[in-house]
Amino acid sequence: MILGNGLLATLDRRDQRGPYGLVPGGWLRIEDGLITETGGPESAPAPDIDLNGRLVTPGLIDCHTHLVWAGSRSDEFERRLNGETYADIARAGGGILSTVRATRAATRADLLAAALPRLDRLMAEGVTTVEIKSGYGLDLDSELRCLAVARMLGELMPVSVVTSYLGAHALPPEYATNRAGYLDLICETVLPEVARRGLADAVDAFCETIAFTPTEVDRVFTAAHGLGLPVKLHAEQLSDQGGAQLAARHRALSADHIEYLSPEGVAALAQSGTVAVLLPGAFHYLKETQLPPVAALRAAGVPIAVASDLNPGSSPVNSLLTTLNMACVLFRLTPEEALAGVTANAARALGLDDRGRIAPGLRADLAIWDAARPGDLCHPLGVNPLAAVIRGGALTRGRL
Ligand code: NIG
Ligand code: FE
Q1: Quick one: three-class SS letters along 268-333?
Q2: Rounded Cα–Cα distance for residues 142 and 148 (Å)
Q3: What's residue 76's pLDDT?
Q4: What angle do CA 289, 294, 297 make, to 5 degrees?
Q5: Would you say the CB of residue 64 lies under 6 angstroms from ligand 1?
Q6: Which ligand has the shortest distance to the CA of 90?
Q7: What is the pLDDT of residue 23?
Q8: What pLDDT does residue 13 have?
Q9: Regarding beta strands 160-168 and 202-205, do their DSSP bridges make them parallel or antiparallel, or are they unpaired?
Q10: What does the buried/exposed string (b/e) look like for 229-262 if buried means 16 or more CB atoms within 10 Å of the residue's CB?
Q11: Which of these, 58, 20, 65, lies nearest to 307 by C-alpha position?
Q12: Closest CA to 62 of 261, 256, 274
């Protein structure tokens, strides 16, 4: 199949293409679910489908979500507006632990029913790959249940689901006076079982004063490596814990949040090739004032990804297009950087080298938009110009 006469934002700068790797009047050939050839108007073969100049991007990738949960925390939104902080609420047993109580009480069917519309809302904006973390179950059965539901979502829906085990998200109440016991449970029981069942593609942790120390995270990461699983980290969200340096030492795929990242942390990420994942939704909702060090990350050549962090507490942002706008307005990313952050660099944050750009040999995961310029995906709020989605070479949404 040949798609012709599109405005291709390839996000591929290898052929000395300009911003966005843009190819006006571009075409691409799809065979067996892969892109096998692309080109500009000078070499265009007769197309099977005329895109009429519409914008084509790689299918979007949301590389950081907590999409499987039960319950609601809209009450905490009100509490924060009445003066309590995110950390106050967490220490008082709310926050993540409130979602843990609801999630533990939910069946697989409950969780699936709650997660499906959230996933569909992401997909309605051109998402073809999504990462989903556990971390709201914390005990063995609930973590396995949440990860199994995440895997099921990928079977039910035309989207690639990549999973992360986030047992070290919060200390569960039954271990409130036994931190070491919970670390034992993660490293000796839950993580091996998760790995044995093939339920996780990576292992994540939350390194923070209200969560786990670098020493504790180090233990979890060491156990992950022992099972052959890559790691990633919620780092430097509310304070500088040196989490990025720890993540870099463990060759982490990504360090996420990083508002309080230090110059040493930036250097460590650059050295290890770890992707910096920016989560402007959490910054927005927590009314953070400390900006992530975007200029330093740029200067050091650290790849920057952008994700929704979709969760019931710090980032109830069920939209990657809204997130793109927030990355530009709040973090001053250029629209090109933001779009690379949900395509090429998001793929890298997930350790996937078969997607995220429009280039021969990669999966034919494409989003087609009624938009005249790629920056139009970042510019307005509340506008969804998605026209169609092709995933693995098949039309899965809209029409061409
Ligand atoms: O990425 N930082 C820790 N975890 C989530 C928040 C989860 C929650 O508030 O429920 C985050 O922001
Ligand atoms: Fe998160």
Answers
A1: HHHHHCCEEEECHHHHHHCCCCCCCCHHHHHHHCCCEEECCCCCCCCCCCCCHHHHHHHHHHCCCC
A2: 10
A3: 95
A4: 140
A5: no
A6: 1
A7: 96
A8: 76
A9: parallel
A10: bbbbbbbbbbebbbbbbbbbebebbbbbbbbbbb
A11: 65
A12: 256
Q: C-alpha 325: how far from its chain's center?
A: 16
Q: Cα–Cα distance between 147 and 164 in angstroms, integer?
A: 8
Dist. CA 64 → ligand 2 center (Å): 6
78-83 own/partner pairs: CB under 8 Å, 24+ apart: 80/286, 80/287
- Probe residue for ligand 1, chosen from 85, 146, 234, 256 as the CB with the greatest number of ligand atoms within 8 Å: 234
Ligand nearest to the CA of 281: 1
* 337-385 pLDDT per residue, tens: 999 999 999 999 999 999 999 999 999 999 999 999 999 999 999 999 9
Q: Which residues of the chain have pLDDT under 70?
A: 15
Report pLDDT digits (tens) over 120-140. Answer: 999 999 999 999 999 999 999
Q: Which atom of ligand 1 is nearest to the CA of 315?
A: 12
Residue carrying the six token digits 């200067």: 299
C-alpha–C-alpha distance, residues 277 and 336, integer Å = 15
Q: Which residue has the tokens 């629209």?
A: 335
Amino acid 223: pLDDT: 98
State CA 73 to chain mean position distance.
Answer: 21
- By most ligand atoms within 8 Å of CB, the mutation choice from 96, 208, 241 for ligand 1 is 96
H runs (alpha helix) in the chain: 74-81, 86-91, 96-104, 108-123, 140-156, 179-184, 191-196, 214-226, 243-249, 263-272, 280-285, 294-300, 320-329, 335-341, 344-349
347 touches 57 (CB < 8 A): no
Question: Are 143 and 132 in contact, with CB atoms under 8 Å apart?
Answer: no
Please tell me the predicted confidence (pLDDT) of residue 352: 98
Residue 16: per-residue pLDDT: 72
Structure tokens at 32: 């067996």
